[in-house]
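Pilot study result, target chain (280 residues):
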Amino acid sequence: MSHVVFVYGTLLQEIGRASVLDGSTCLGPAIITASLYNLGDCPGITNDKGTVVGELYEVSPETLQQLDNIEGCHAVDGEPAPMVRRNVRAHRLNDGSSCTAGAYYFDYDVDDNEFTPYIAHGDYRRFLIERETPQWVLAYGSNLSSQRLKGRVGSLGARKLGHIPHFELVFNKQAENGSGTYANIRYAPNGQCPAVAWELTSDQIVVLDKEYEGVPVHYLRIGLPFQTADGTTMLAHAYIAAPGMLVEGKKPAAHYLEHLRTGYAEHGFDASNLPIGEEP
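Predicted structure:
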């Protein structure tokens, strides 16, 4: 019998212990209601209210036992276990559906530990990215166009061409006026979504968050692996639609798609699979 687990720290793809889940089936990104803290070498969660970003995996009983051992779910020398695995309701970012998954909670009072700063946005990969310089933001939609992005945030830094592995481009993010859709990315095991990593300042990212991407109501900004054209894998910021903003059966506006076509041409991407947009 397999088990579904929600991972949110060093077991995430491209983080230190990700290889433990080699051979397990990734079910894509998800969010849960909890609070995320930095414990030093790894994060931990509590039952407090908040949003934590992670990934769902289907694992074997043997792998589940290995995870329990790694996470410290067993008492040692009479001391209580520091972590406990509990069932939690997880919401998939692919389609907004929910499922029950096991997640590892640290089982002591946060106030008693001085090394547990709260990670308000709830995303460990984003937390790691934000400690580094420079900051890279992935564009796969209208922000592919340097002209459009400059109009939003000002002068741009360097760029890196590549793709977002295991994701595909879709148009299922509800537009603000309700008449169409915007670009989004959806987990797909064999997907390779064309993208550009733009070097932006922290201030520019805040402008995108607040004025254009509607974080966290419309889009979430999360950390994702990005594979550059030369085969290097790096972590970068990416915008993915919040579960409550997903819609099916609608098309993007033609004028919106023109920004994507401009960006695809600018960076040499194949635009043949882009849809035909609807006129407003």
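One observation from the pilot: Residues 254-267 form the longest helix (14 residues). A full batch analysis is planned for the follow-on phase.
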